[in-house]
Specification:
The structure holds two protein chains of two kinds. Chain A is an all-alpha fold. Chain A has a domain of about 100 residues: Cytochrome Bc1 Complex, Chain D, domain 2 (Orthogonal Bundle), CATH 1.10.760. Helices cover about 40% and strands about 0% of the residues of chain A. Chain A is elongated and about 95 Å long. Helix content of chain B is about 40%, strand content about 0%. In chain B, helix 5 crosses helix 6. The longest helix of chain B is centred in the first third of the chain and has 28 residues. The chains are: A mainly alpha, B mainly alpha. Chains A and B meet through helix 1, helix 3, helix 4 and helix 5 of A and helix 1, helix 5 and helix 10 of B.
Chain lengths: ~240, ~220
């Protein structure tokens, strides 16, 4: 008898084993549901309490959270007191800002505008021209105010949708600074290199690990063609038209 | 009438012994099988729910090379990784495939904010565990360590157990997973030729004084 029960148990658990493994769509089994699901809201979870079913509450229209009011229009909106787009960058342009800008540009803009800003990102080819991102190397855009680029990121323009919701204000200015560096890097002239610069020695390697000279770590194929913004000005200077 | 004395027949002895052995075996089997059957490796790995919108990471993140942070924009700023709102999709899909049936729910959510797309959550920790994306991503742990090659998935599937033993295994030796921060979203990154994962990992670990919680239970159960 016990033997039979034992054999049955083994068979049953073996069968159950097949059922336990979530074959794709079956919701995983909760073995000890104890405190797995607590009556609290986690980010982006559903809620039966609110009419729209979301636990994340959107801020009521026209309100600003405490401590989030910034009255510096130049910084927040890219406009001066009389509402004109500001010419320069309200944030001091440093190497750190350019690095940040490079990273954020490659995340948020490169899919459309390409890593060089020439408008040839993956989207253009993959969408068969349904969306045609602008060439940021265009002369008009080279000469345009910094505030305009900031405004385009924040509010979009024509067929480009606003991206402001995803990119914090300070990152938008970092991107603007990097776009400027990109534009410059594609139009440099050997005369821009300060006299006496050893171009080879100035070649940067972009990885933080390679603070000490270990180029192997830095030169991953994944590193972007336009290595660190300002520094690459010298890098691209040598081969360009002359 | 003789008084009947209850005398067990001889075979009972064997039966009792058999029963005892059987019970021991059963208990053993229940423990072993029970453990095996309920391990996160068995229970959770392979979960791949059908999503309301047939969104493909393979196309967007893989073929088009979009960075994870274009959509999961809070992953390096907050504990949770934001699943993008319809606006993020509409950045492209106002123009691309703008009449596709597959995108009907996205257009609906975009037009009416009270009807968000109800994505099915794939990776799920119990509520009594504290987890933060920010800490991991900013110290150089790649998405691939915990989610697998998402950029090759047509439909997202859970590939790692996310159990306590699994978390601790990495916390004891994070150098096996650490990489320079700028490559955390490059899922196909490998150590450059001439270096090993250990070398790079140890260097990052020592430079940034990385000590993930192991014995400190309150690190994860707070």
């Amino acid at each position: 008898m016990t033997r039979r029960i034992f054999i049955l148990l083994v068979l049953a658990s073996a069968l159950a084993g097949c059922g336990l493994r979530p074959a794709g769509n079956t919701t995983p089994l909760q073995v000890h549901p104890d405190m797995d699901s607590q009556p609290k809201f986690k980010a982006q979870s559903a809620s039966a309490f609110f009419a729209d079913g979301r636990s994340n509450r959107p801020a009521p229209l026209g309100t600003i959270a405490q401590g989030h009011l910034n009255e510096d229009d130049g910084f927040v909106m890219g406009k001066d007191a009389s509402g004109n787009l500001i010419k320069g960058n309200p944030v001091a342009v440093t190497e750190a800002l350019l690095k940040r800008g490079q990273e954020r540009f490659n995340i948020n803009c490169a899919t459309c505008h390409g890593q060089l800003g020439d408008g040839n990102g993956a989207v253009k080819t993959r969408s068969f021209g349904a969306l045609a991102p602008a060439n940021l190397q265009d002369t008009r855009l080279r000469e345009i105010a910094d505030g305009h680029i900031f405004d385009v990121i924040t509010n979009g323009i024509r067929t480009m949708q606003p991206l402001g919701g995803n990119i914090p204000v300070s990152d938008r200015w970092a991107i603007v600074a990097y776009v400027r560096a990109l534009q410059r890097s594609q139009s440099t002239n050997i005369k821009d290199v300060p006299a006496g610069t050893d171009i080879k020695a100035a070649d940067p390697s972009s990885s933080p690990v390679s603070a000490a000279p270990s180029p192997a770590v830095g030169s991953s194929p994944a590193a972007s063609p336009a290595s660190s913004g300002a520094a690459s000005t010298t890098k691209t200077a040598a081969p360009t038209k002359k | 009438m003789k008084a009947t004395k209850l005398i067990f027949p001889k075979w009972i002895n064997t039966a009792v012994r058999l029963a005892l052995v059987g019970a021991a075996l059963t208990a053993g089997a229940v423990v072993v099988l029970g453990k095996f059957l309920t391990m996160p490796e068995t229970v959770d790995v392979g979960y791949q729910p059908t999503q309301p919108v047939p969104y493909s990471h393979k196309l967007h993140a893989g073929e088009m090379g979009m960075d994870c942070r274009f959509c999961h924009s809070t992953v390096d700023k907050a504990d949770f990784a934001a699943v993008p709102p319809a606006q993020t999709c509409m950045v492209c899909h106002t123009a691309i495939k703008k009449d596709s049936d597959k995108l009907a729910l996205i257009r609906q959510a975009f037009a009416d904010a009270s009807k968000p797309v109800e994505w099915v959550k794939v990776h799920k920790l119990p509520d009594f565990v504290y987890f933060s994306h920010k800490v991991h991503v900013n110290s150089g742990v790649s998405c691939v360590s915990c989610h697998g090659r998402v950029d090759q998935m047509e439909v997202v599937q859970q590939q790692k157990p996310l159990g306590m033993a699994w978390c601790i295994e990495c916390h004891k030796a994070p150098e096996n997973a650490l990489r320079p921060k700028e490559f955390v979203t490059k899922l196909d990154w490998t150590p450059p030729p001439g270096t090993t994962q250990q070398e790079i990992g140890l260097k990052i670990k020592n430079e940034n004084k990385i000590h993930p919680p192991v014995e400190n239970c309150a690190g994860c159960h707070r």
